[in-house]
Amino acid sequence: xxxxxKLAGKFIVIExxxxxxxSTAIQYIQNWLIKQGLVEAQIALTREPGGTxxxxxxxxxxxxxxxxxxxxxxxxxxxxxxxxxxxxxxxVKPALADNKVVIGDRHNWxxxxxxxxxxxxxxxxxxxxxxxxxxxxxxxxxxxxxIEPELGLARARGxxxxxxxxxxxxxxxxxxxxxxxxxxVDEPNSVSIDASQSFxxxxxxxxxxxxxxxxxxx
Length: 218
Ligand code: T5A
Fold this sequence. Notes:
Blueprint: H1 3-7, E1 11-16, H2 22-35, E2 43-47, H3 53-63, H4 73-97, E3 101-105, H5 108-118, H6 123-134, E4 141-146, H7 149-159, H8 170-186, E5 190-194, H9 199-216
Parallel strand pairs: 1-3, 1-4, 2-3, 4-5
Helix pairs in contact: 2-9, 3-4, 4-6, 5-6, 5-8
The structure holds P1-(5'-adenosyl)P5-(5'-thymidyl)pentaphosphate.
P1-(5'-adenosyl)P5-(5'-thymidyl)pentaphosphate binds next to α2, α5, α7 and α9.
């Protein structure tokens, strides 16, 4: 089977803390897919929360600072899943059914890491919500860009003002990171990449891991 045939209908997700380099890494994944023989029309990009008109509205809500009213942790969690259902049903599944490769900038692990690890919501409750919202739907391959929160936030700061979540204390991101690290251990179809490396080294690591994953596909 050719690489293009093996990759048809696959959902590749990139996860990590703020400033880990996810947006940058998506370019590397696209370049790799094109090297495998795909054309641009066979690749779809998504981001979470967001990616559809309504999901982008939900993204605005979770990023918004509202004077005198805090977004409750469970409201934040449910908005993440509401946005995810919109995206998966309206964009991701149709693209996969059309044999495209979908590259997701964040997916389910971000809720486990941020709302679970960071906010302290029980992971089993989040898994139940996930099951109700998405059933068994999940990424075919997850690349976790692992970075010290201090370095990631410094990079994010260099890019502009920090939003509501990015301004949280460093402990929040340490707890989120610990959940991401455990998820990589538990999920065979995932890898961890050292995101503190140079641009070129991160690109090389991602391409190496994608090569190995492709080889493993039947
Ligand atoms: N969230 C999201 C939840 O709480 N729960 C959920 O379920 C979901 C889905 C999303 C927010 O929502 C939260 C998490 C987030 O707080 P967002 O704007 O999408 O918000 O935030 P991020 O996904 O974190 O996006 P960022 O742009 O902050 O991070 P990226 O995409 O990881 O980083 P990137 O590629 O833009 O790079 C940041 C800077 O670092 C440089 C880049 O040039 C850029 O300037 N950089 C490097 N510098 C040196 N060496 C390298 N190797 C570099 N790679 C990148």
